[in-house]
Structure formats: structure tokens, C-alpha cells
Amino acid sequence: xxxxxxxxxxxxxxxxxxxxxxxxxxxxxxxxxxxxxxxxxxxxxxxxxxxxxxxxxxxxxxxxxxxxxxxxxxxxxxxxxxxxxxxxxxxxxxxxxxxxxxxxxxxxxxxxxxxxxxxxxxxxxxxxxxxxxxxxxxxxxxxxxxxxxxxxxxxxxxxxxxxxxxxxxxxxxxxxxxxxxxxxxxxxxxxxxxxxxxxxxxxxxxxxxxxxxxxxxxxxxxxxxxxxxxxxxxxxxxxxxxxxxxxxxxxxxxxxxxxxxxxxxxxxxxxxxxxxxxxxxxxxxxxxxxxxxxxxxxxxxxxxxxxxxxxxxxxxxxxxxxxxxxxxxxxxxxxxxxxxxxxxxxxxxxxxxxxxxxx
Length: 359
Description:
The protein is an alpha/beta fold. The protein has twelve helices and 15 strands.
């Protein structure tokens, strides 16, 4: 089997309210891989908020995709190494990592289809039913919108809800979190996300204001580049730290583990150089009794969590319109059943490319 063509493009998809208050659109960089035996692979990277998607597309189309033409797509690890070592002056972080991720996801889709298995079974299944946490709680929400969204996820059976804490006054953040806790009661636990906005001392003050609220985790407290600061926060506060959505390689995650900077790691399969690197990260975390809860794209992350003994949760952001994908997994009783379709099980809806293509 040989790769004969790779078609790539960008989809720009509007988001619903109230999420649109913070992010009016999302962009997907898509790679459709064709082979001489008629098996195709769909790869894509969600560029959250859309910024930089066109740069990701350009690097994918001009630098990485040509390295795969004529190659056997079942040599996934060999092709991953080839892409990772393309342009050694370009670290496979940011734009380059998003591009590599989309192609790696597409290659694994082909591998699963050829094997006739969903990826989580190809990798060695642990479970086919994955609990989800409802995610959102954006900073521009009113308290009423915040509680309404939390209640929506609770109605789907989600036992966890994540919200942002972006107000400059830690007391105001604590009030919003407490309001959600009161509204949900004991049926749902809450986690909070700083989104890299604070320094070490500010995080310590903020966490102290939240300690009595029994939070699941305290997410991305400092700049993702500053692993030493993240470790300092983790040592100083009583809430478990979660981080990793803006880390890209197993080498970065190794440092997070060695510094004991987090109790939950959150690789994003669209940023962390695809399924291949994300699975390496997850298995390394398992050796240190660290949970893995991948960032966003739950429809892809399900495959990862289903194959890891330390898989914890997938992040469920209910934003995709019904005409973007075919057969989007459904959340029932707070969990997703992993699709049994071969590969990663996702396909673009028939009209999605025509409707949403922007580049």
C-alpha cells in the first residue's frame, strides 16, 4: 500500500452562544490521505479559536505532506519520525506540531481501517466507556449563563464541570465557583482553569480562596513554558494541579513528571504531535501513577483514554454543529461509548467541506 495523495484544507466553523462570547469560531486543519488500495485516512487538528490555522495548513501542505507521498501508510512510527525530523531547525511545537498531528491522526485512521479495528482496541483496550466532564464556563459568561451551562452538562449525566477563573480579583473567582457548586450540589464536582494567566504567588492566593470547595483540579496555573513555576505551584497549593494542553512532546511531559508539576496530564492529540506521541506520553504517565485527561477533541481523545489504564476523563465542549461530522459520539449518563468503527471512527459530513471550507 502506498500513499498517493494528501488533500488538505481549512474549515472555519461558527460556534454557538454563549461560547461565541469568547470564541466566535473554531478552525479545523484537515488532511485527507489517499492510498493506491482505496483506503483513506482522515486527519485533522482543531486550532482552538482559529488563530494560526492558515500557518498550520501551509506547513502541513508544503513541508510535511510531501514527505509522505509514495510511502506505506502502515509504517506509522517510521513516518512519524520522518515528519518529526523534517526541518530540524523547526521544533515540533506550535504550528509544526499541529500540522504533524493532523497527518499522524490520518495515518492511524488508515491503520485501524486496514486492521478492521477501532484504534483503542488496536492499541490494547482497557475500556469502551469513557466518563466526560462538561467544559466551558468562559470568562464572559454571566453567572446565570455559567450556571445554565453547568446544569446542561449535569442533565446529560456529567459528574464533573470545568469553568474558567479569569477575574483579576481571586475573591470574585471564588464567588463564581461557589455559585456553581451551590447550584449543582453534591451531584457534580468542579474543576477550574487559570489558562496560564497568573504567576506563582497569585496562584497561591487564588488557590487558597478555593480550597474549601473540594475541587477536582486546578488547571494550567502558569505559562506552559515555565515548568519550574508549575512545579512550585503544585508543591504550594492543596488542590491537585492539571496541565499539559500547551505542551507538545514527550520530552516536555517527562519534565512535568520528573518535577512533579501535575497530578493530571492533559495532552491534546492535535497539539502533542498526534496519536503516536500522545500515547507515549500517556504510557509514561502511567509509570508514575499520573492520570491522563486529554484536552478537547473528545471524539478523538476517546481512543486514547480507552487504551490507557491511567485514562481518567475526556473533555466535552458541546460546540460542533450537526452538519460538521457524521455520527458524532453521544454523551449518555455522563459517558461516551467509543465507536466500534475501524480507525478513529470519525468522518466529515457530506456537505461539511463545501459549507465550511475557508482555505
